[in-house]
Amino acid sequence: MPFKIGNKLGAKKRLKRPLDKEVIAFKGYEGQKEKLKAVPDWQERLREFVDQLLSDFPKNG
Length: 61
Hints:
The chain is mainly alpha-helical. The chain is 34% helix and 0% strand. It is extended, with a radius of gyration of 16 Å.
């Protein structure tokens, strides 16, 4: 039985930080999308990798 819109009992994600309303998208190589979805907790791991990538990049200005 599906939950009604606006319910208070549905599953809620417990994230360390709030998510941005805008998505980050890129085109991967053929087959990467399917393989990525098989990785446990891939979205959170990818977010952490992006944070690491940005912290390693020298800031300009």
